[in-house]
Amino acid sequence: xxKSKVEEVASAYPAAEEPSDPIQDAEVDQxxxxxxxxTVAVVGVGVAVFEAALLPGVVLGVAAALVPKALPNIGAxxxxxxxxxxxxxxKFGKKTREFVAETQEHVHDIxxxxxxxxxxxxxxxxSAASASAS
Length: 134
Fold this sequence. Notes:
Elements: H1 5-12, H2 22-25, H3 31-50, H4 55-133
């Protein structure tokens, strides 16, 4: 069978594809997130209607529910902050040790000078006492 000219032209130009829906084509299934958000919204409205004093507890509950999902992102964001904090603490500790060592050295020098002047007074007093005894 031979193709007609219309069929040849139609086969040369494939049919236009229907536009796809990005929400349906998404690789990540977000139905859990939507379900959680809806549940939280319903509970929040119920709490607000019945007892407004429970709202802080609801906020803490929502935060506790979202932490496991957001924790990997938080960890990646806080990594550089943690490293810089540790470096700063290390440098501060090192400078503090140097300061304490210098201060300790100065105190030892002052004590040694005090001991030397005390000994000089004792030696000077003994030599004056021996000179007067002779």
